[in-house]
Amino acid sequence: MDLSHEFQTAVNRSKELTARPSNEELLSLYALYKQATEGDVTGDRPGGFDFKAIAKFDAWAELKGKLKEEAMKAYIDLMDKLYQTYR
Asked: 75 with 12: CB under 8 angstroms?
């Protein structure tokens, strides 16, 4: 199975979780997904009191420079762990 297919399978498995992962785990999933699908974060950091958007931006920005393939593999590995814990 190629990496893209494994990644898409992991994304689909994320919808099968029966319990909600922690906020930190969700941020990691979000950031890895964005890095894998879009590459480095662009645009300005959100301001004001939109703390959720700021947290998401910061989590994604921490992955700057990570190759898309590396982000896909990290997403798959994290999803495997979460699937065992939250299904």
From this structure: no
